[in-house]
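for the recovery benchmark. tokens below, seq after
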């Protein structure tokens, strides 16, 4: 998937989904491992209630530059450079939007989850290719 505002289904049924965002303002490809918490109004295992998200929280990110192999671990309250703040904000906004649109009714193991779910994954930020005509 590349640079679309439509919903990416992150909660796939055991299938690996490579999420890529193409951005004009990055020079090197970045591999970002992330960890999030989603809080719900009611326990997910309660199938009689509508599923409403109360809070989304991006806990941490592991940002790896695929060209230089440099790795940075970022947390919400960590001291970040301007570029790291940009990456954090971008990822937070995208993930918050995507996780708010997931189909939690069909989540594997839903019957085992309460009001709080910790999830994670990987996304790739890649430089936008300059196409010359």
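predicted aa per position
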């Amino acid at each position: 998937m590349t640079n679309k505002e439509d919903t990416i289904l992150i909660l796939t049924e055991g299938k690996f989904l490579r999420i890529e965002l193409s951005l004009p303002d990055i020079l090197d490809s970045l591999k970002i491992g992330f960890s999030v918490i989603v809080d719900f109004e009611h326990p997910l295992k309660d199938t009689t209630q509508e599923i409403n998200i109360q809070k989304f929280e991006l806990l941490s990110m592991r940002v790896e530059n695929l060209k230089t192999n440099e790795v940075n671990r970022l947390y919400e309250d960590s001291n970040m450079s301007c570029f790291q703040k940009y990456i954090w904000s971008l990822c937070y906004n995208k993930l918050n939007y995507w996780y708010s649109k997931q189909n939690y009714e069909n989540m594997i193991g839903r019957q085992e989850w309460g009001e709080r779910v910790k999830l994670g994954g990987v996304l790739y930020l890649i430089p936008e290719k300059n196409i010359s005509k």
